[in-house]
Amino acid sequence: MIQVNIALETFCLLLLLIMLCFSLYSSRKAKLDILFETMLGITMLTLGADVTYYFFADTSNINLLYFVNFCSFSFGFLLSACYAQYVLEYINLRGSASKWYARVPIAVALVAFILVVVQMFNHMYFSFDEEGHYQRGALFLLDTAFVLLITLCAIVMIVANRKALNRSDLFPLLSYCILPVLAIVLQIFIPQITFVLLATTLSLFIIYSMIHVEYTRRLKEAEMALSNAGLRIAMSQIQPHFTYNALASIAQLCTIDPKAAQRATVDFSNYLRGNLDSANSTEPIPFSMELEHLNHYLSIEKLRFEERLNVEFDIGATEFFIPALTVQPLVENAIKHGICKRPDGGTVKVSSREEEKAFVVTVEDDGVGFEKGDAPDGGGAHIGIDNVRQRLQAMVRGELLLESEKGKGTRATITIPKAEGLN
Q1: Which residues pair with 285 in a beta bridge?
Q2: CA angle, 215 as apex, 210 and 219 as ends, to 5°?
Q3: Most buried among 173, 322, 329, 346, by the most CB within 10 A?
Q4: CA quadruple 97, 100, 103, 105: dihedral positive or negative?
């Protein structure tokens, strides 16, 4: 039976290696990708430990046999905990699941690992005689019970959050729970063949072919949509009237203050370059870079509005990431739809702060404001706000909240969860 096991597990290793190579090549290194690739890696290590055991079985190298089996047991618990995290992350992409669903399997896996360490001293799971023959211990079924408990936690997580999943997701996710359990039961009666690792490999292949490939395809489509959205917002910011006003202001400065005209030209070119660069950006940028782009824009607007436009900054946090062209469109809306409509102008205030679970950016003005049903949702304002909201959600799971009171002004609040904002 040793030759049969070596052949089966070598085949599984090759299949896992192929999946890992394709995943590394095609994935975008989202958290779900990393978890799946980790599962592939752990399964390969477990198979490697098993194959090593078969090569050295029935030898006098008892210490090596104990070490190889210790690795095999430990990797199994680690793999189960990793799968629970994978399911949690996949559900969170569709909805929201409590983190306790994953914390319980991790706690169980930790207890199981500690008992494996203890087993190395009291041999409650397994032992080897002087000739290297494997012998089950009195509590060998306890190890199986831990695996079944972790698997049960994953099943509960899937069933409890089934409304957030498609029907096509249920079979591959549950296959990882059901097939290894059936293999465990079968292996109790036929211990000579390692059905569990074969079933685990088959389950991972089902997940890869039915979920992971489809997820990667959707991720690429989402990135393309984000790129197109970035291009639309970048182009919407380079509006003819804004360009005309900027160039007219610079031309006027050329005769009055040539040095100021030079600085304004540099600001205008940097503003245009920032907009065009953001069109190809599918990753968040440091908040400090967004502030730099905002300053280029405000320098141009100050040329036009002079004393009518007052800008205040209260920056309490900068060490986080934000989608490009997120704050600047909000400031532009504050100027265009708030400050501009007041004869004496007004103030736009940009602030940022760090909270316990999130980073918060606020853009507020003391302009004319609007009532809830009268929001400026036509033309460029609508495109800008919609794109900001879409890219915040897609890139950093952020939110944009607009609040306004007619005659008093408007506040736009961006909230970015720390787990995403720290990138």
Answers
A1: 322
A2: 160
A3: 322
A4: negative
Alpha carbons within 13 angstroms on the beta-carbon side of residue 248 total 9
Structure tokens at 158: 């899937």
> Roughly what angle, to the nearest 10 degrees, separates helices 167-189 and 195-207?
170
Q: Which residues make beta-bridge pairs with 352?
A: 315, 361
Instruction: Please name which of 83, 77, 78, 89 lies closest in space to residue 161, comparing C-alpha atoms.
Output: 89
Model-level pTM greater than 0.85? Answer: no
Find residue 315's DSSP bridge partners: 352
Are 258 and 67 in contact by the 8 Å Cβ rule? The answer is no
Q: Which amino acid is at 350?
A: V
Radius of gyration of the chain (CA): 30
- Nearest by Cα to 367 from 395, 340, 393: 340
pLDDT, tens only, 48-68? 877 777 776 555 677 777 887
Q: How many CB atoms lie within 10 A of CB 28?
A: 13
Q: Which domains does the chain have, with CATH numbers?
A: 2-222 (1.20.1070.10), 238-421 (3.30.565.10)
Q: Is 100 exposed, middle or buried (0-12, 13-18, 19+ CB in 10 A)?
A: exposed
The residue whose two tokens read 């009055």 is: 256
3-class SS letters over the chain: CHHHHHHHHHHHHHHHHHHHHHHHHHCCCCHHHHHHHHHHHHHHHHHHHHHHHHHHCCCCCHHHHHHHHHHHHHHHHHHHHHHHHHHHHHHHHHCCCCCHHHHHHHHHHHHHHHHHHHHHHHCCCEEECCCCCEEECCCHHHHHHHHHHHHHHHHHHHHHCHHHCCHHHHHHHHHHHHHHHHHHHHHHHCCCCCHHHHHHHHHHHHHHHHHHHHHHHHHHHHHHHHHHHHHHHHHHHCCHHHHHHHHHHHHHHHHHCHHHHHHHHHHHHHHHHHHHHHHCCCCCEEHHHHHHHHHHHHHHHHHHHHHHEEEEEEECCCCCEECCCCHHHHHHHHHHHHHCCCCCCEEEEEEEEECCCEEEEEEEECCCCCCHHHCCCCHHHHHHHHHHHHHHHHHHCCEEEEEEECCCEEEEEEEEEHHHHCC
pLDDT in tens, 327-379: 988 998 888 888 888 888 899 999 999 998 899 999 999 988 877 655 554 44
Tokens 């087993």 locate to 119
Pairing of strands 346-354, 134-136: unpaired
What does residue 27 show for φ and ψ, rounded to 5 degrees? -80, 165
